[in-house]
Amino acid sequence: MTKKIALSLLFALFCSHFSFAAEEAAQPGKNDNVSFNQLLKQLTEEYTAGLQMPEPARPADAEAAGVQDNRYWITVQASDRYVRTRLLEAGVDIVEVHKNKISGIAPKDVLAGLSQKGYTIEKKIPLSQYIKNLKDFPAADAAYHNYKETTDLLKTLVSKNSDIASLFSLGKTIENREIWCLRINSTAKGRKASGKPGAVYIGNHHAREHLSNEVPLLLAVYLLDYRNDADIKKYIAALDIYIVPMLNPDGVEFDIKTGKYQWQRKNMRVNSDKSVGVDLNRNYDSWFGGQGTSHYPSADTYCGTAAFSEPESLAIKNFVLARKNLKTMNSYHSYGGLVMYPWGGKDAPVENEKDRQVFIKAAGEMAKLTDYTPEQSNEMYIATGDTCDWAYDAAKIFAFTTELEGRGFYPGAAIIEKAVTSNIKAAVYMLSLTDNPYKILK
User: Fold this and answer.
1) Which of 95, 126, 385, 395 has a 20 to 30 Å separation from 73 between CA atoms?
2) What is the pTM of this model?
3) What is the CATH topology of the domain spanning 57-133?
4) 7-51+140-441 fold
5) Is residue 403 among the annotated active site residues?
6) Which of 89, 253, 403, 405 is catalytic?
7) Residue-level pLDDT at 133
8) CA distances from 274 to 238, 255, 413 (A)
9) pLDDT beyond 60 at 28
10) What are the extents of the domains in the chain?
């Protein structure tokens, strides 16, 4: 997949101005000697050349890639979040929530048991056929970054801002790819400890959610491009900022490897039944394996054999526990247009009243900036093993899940400008709280 970013996006990021109140040294990249303005021109020329997005996978493509896709798109009656939670446990990947029903993805073995358990299935269609019939599938997505392009851009950013930026790996994936983390800190690089309050932004827990890579990746571009802006300069001097744009690169690369999207959610673990993947956002040690998670290996919400069984989630665990200075976190997903906060894994609010109010007020402010809806994570359904539940429970980090906007997992390039621009505003707002989140209560 060639690159890159549409003219309108880069114009918004590099030509407009937002008013906001290494251990492993980066290697030279292909754009090492290119300024941001030159990069803008180059990327604009590439985008306007009419590059085509990968089309959705057809059955023949899946077979050619060695993939046996036995998943179905289904619509099931579900009256409330408790029914939705039980459907998750039964192995359904809930994608859309409607008034009295849900739509989502279920493998064949899960589908066979739903009727036996008393669920009313209103519609079922092979996933490959559902994808084929989509009328609003986007025409181009060359703007999105694959793993190599993401890595190259991170290295370029570091090489051009080596006084405050560094790049290091959190560890390796199942398929031996590095999980890159860009750090912005004026006094510490790589894994060196820092006493400054820390913020972390994470994208692409789920492979098919490519927009969730663009937001943190372009946040890094923005922070370094506007490093001399008064507010940004203040945050860079006072804070320890980490950006992990692509936590699940194996799944991302599989999703696009044939030039046809595969609707891959999980990582690339080969399970005991030869199915592929563990849902990384069910693999954290926050009531692991409990409500809202599936123990069917073929299910898209399969939690794995144990908490932190996957190298990708284990990398986040090790990263967080090694940094006692972390105060805030934002984990990006798509789609839904929500800013969510703990708890998601149990049917209760955060017990600490002061902390709960910080979550509510901060989510509300970020939702205003993005035009999303703020809510506790369990409003849709209860789901254990979640990143942000664990980060708050284990390290008392004020951790938020942002469900980005869109009408599907592959919304095309046109959505990037608005999603990135508004979410950068919310991300910078989170930086403004990171030194002392409790100040929002004053």
Assistant:
1) 385
2) 0.80
3) Alpha-Beta Plaits (3.30.70)
4) Aminopeptidase (3.40.630)
5) yes
6) 403
7) 56
8) 48, 18, 34
9) no
10) 7-51+140-441, 57-133
